[in-house]
Amino acid sequence: MENEASDSSNKEPSSFKLLVSFPSGLSPSQVSVQFSHAYDRIPHSDLTLENTISQIWEQRSVQNKSLFNGNKFRYGGQVLQTGGEPDNEPHVCLRLGLTDYRTFVGTNLSPLWERFLVPSEDDSVLCQHTSSPLGNGAVVETIDNKILVLQRSNNVGEFPGYFVFPGGHPEPQEIGITSHQYVKELTESINAKVSQEMFDSIVREVVEEIGVPALSLSIPTFIGISRRDLNVRPAAFFFIKCNLDSKEVQQFYSSAQDGYESTQLYTVPMIELENMASKMPGCHRGGFALYKLMVGTRKVT
Fold first, then answer.
1. Whole-number mean pLDDT of the chain?
2. Which residues partner with 147 through β-bridges?
3. 233-241/221-228 β-pairing
């Protein structure tokens, strides 16, 4: 396993791929979800490789007693739609399955993660054997046009010391999902709840990690999904406007609920963020790329 770990060192931590982008931003009414077991992870045919998932989890659990195996939404792709009545707006339907943190640690974060990949031009096939939980991130812009960036602490499992946007994961348990065992007649309402959780969860993350009141934040707009090349880690990104200035935000940060996850909050202009981007994990650097596309669209219009 140690030898395999060195094989993935050729992947730059900050490299990424944009899976889908919406420079004009999508409102909650333009984002829907299809939640189905069809988008769950497919176990690998190599049973020896499959067995490493539980082995790695046991090893990590011994090293870190605070590890918790919670359910997550698994990213299984999306379907883009244009046109439609009455307002001709673009629309995206996210395809989501169910996974958990244990499988994420044992596949995407495994030293053997590249062995779980399938060579393919189709991204959904490429990652069919990985957990690939859908993370989220928010590019938050203050009223004085600064962007909020956190420096991760040493208490986090991934990329300690790196710069990131506030974020985390949409959470199945927040809307009562523990498995796919729900009544089929409720599928439509479940999909609507999961779609709403995509937007609710990113507001929660900003409030918990930055400390600002939810009422100071605009309704998030969905700007796309990026994926880190290292560990094929996907994350949905949103743009949020905050009606506080930089100094006010810093004051709230001092009492943030999840402040232990970060050591410092930076409020920076675009040009300064450009200089920080090289020390961002790829999925977050991709989030910055999505924001720049949005800014470019605003300038054109």
1. 89
2. 141, 268
3. antiparallel
